[in-house]
Amino acid sequence: MQEKQVDVAIIGSGTAGLNARSVVDKAGGSWALIESGAYGTTCARVGCMPSKLLIAAADAAHEIHAAGLFGVYVDDVRIDGEQVLDRVRRERDRFAGFVVKDTQALPAEHRLSGEARFVGPTTLEVGDHTRVTANAVVIAAGSDPFIPPPFDAIRKHVITNDDVFELERLPKSLAVVGTGIIGLELGQAMARLGLHVVFFARSTDLGPLTDPDVKAAVFAQMDSELNLRLSTSIIDAARTDQGVQIQWRDAEDAEHEEIFDTVLVAAGRRPNIPDLNLAATGLELNSRGMPPWDPSTAQCGDLPIFLAGDASAHIPLLHEAADEGRIAGENAMQYPDIVAHARRTPLAVVFTDPQIAMAGQRYADLNTNDTEIGAVSFDDQGRARVMGRNRGLLRIYARRRCGTLLGAEMFGPRMEHIAHLLAWAIQQKLTVQQALEMPFYHPVVEEGLRTALRDLAYKLKVADSLRCEDMAEAPGC
């Protein structure tokens, strides 16, 4: 077996791993990049980018069907599923190709192919060909879709977000198991592309929201558009000549069954940790096989082992993975002189229509004794109504004793932009008064944010202290 000695061994060549490698290389350290699968990040290959390509096609179809609201009528609309999926794959391959090309351009002697397995605190065996001894290890091994037991026996007959984009044609019917971010995004897109789609979930949750009022607004809208089977339990799933037959029990304990051409399992993803043999490191593992981990340092326990990206099961988003990779790489190089980093304000967007977003503290994490809440409905918001997208609710949280913005949960048109504005304001520790001093153009959906801020100002009893222009109205709008 070949022997290799490096400063930092990096398991995984996704977003977190590549960022860790970059930091180590810049610091002058030696490194080994270990990958068991194909190059290309989760985002580019099976996540953010191909899903948004599919959603873009679905949005185009939906806009055509909804054009009658404006007195615009389009006859003989035809959706060519093969062309839709062909564009998704072509553009996906283009995005992923950039990452693959850059990774393959790295020196071959630093790249190892094979499954990594710990045989000591910082010693790894890669496949059956290389033993790597490192001063520190960064685990950036990513995650894999979780397949619930009823579907495990027919795994080859169901799809996940890892392989949905390999479909060459759209099926006629689709069961979506799970109503988290992946299930909602892909399922709604498929429904808008003309498929018969039914969603199944054990709970009543739709997406990651925790604010009960915003959750209710999401349910009211989604239930009017989508076939939701919430509070259900899957009894059995079996392959038949007609497709996949699902048997389930509803909230009233009645049993049902239906056959679908295809089943999309979107029941979450699990870190690729079990096969690493972390027990050999001496780390104390919890019941899920995960080590103790500090998100401010990316360190596992007090060892020179660092965890980053989806493998950490912390916040499985690209920008978080990039940050964690950098933090892990830096601390791996300078171990034992570990530096704690202040993490960015949490920011998450679900690209449904309307969009779901969260910025800063979640409702579930608030100290309700010291929190005031401002709100705005988008049902009659000016720009939203002009666009025919007037539905949704935004709730924004501030500290009662000082008016500092804490967080927000929202559902409505173009929430990706409002969430960014709020995340920046929260990270800068702006108060409600300071936020209202910022400019708001007219007519834009961001004016809805101003309405929520003004609602907060009144509830905090600081409206009288605002500058007169900060409470200026736009009559009739």
What does this structure look like?
The protein has 477 residues and is an alpha/beta fold. It has three domains: 2-144 and 270-334, FAD/NAD(P)-binding domain (3-Layer(bba) Sandwich), CATH 3.50.50.60; 149-267, FAD/NAD(P)-binding domain (3-Layer(bba) Sandwich); 347-470, FAD/NAD-linked reductase, C-terminal dimerisation domain (Enolase-like, domain 1, 2-Layer Sandwich), CATH 3.30.390.30. It has twelve helices and 23 strands. Strands 1, 2, 3, 4, 5, 6 and 18 form a seven-stranded mixed sheet that branches. It has a five-stranded antiparallel sheet with strand order 19-20-23-22-21, with helices on both faces. The radius of gyration is 24 Å and the shape is globular. The termini are far apart.
CATH topology of the largest domain: FAD/NAD(P)-binding domain
Report the principal-axis shape: globular
Mean pLDDT: 96
Indicate the proportion of strand residues.
Answer: 25-35%
The CATH architecture name of the largest domain reads: 3-Layer(bba) Sandwich
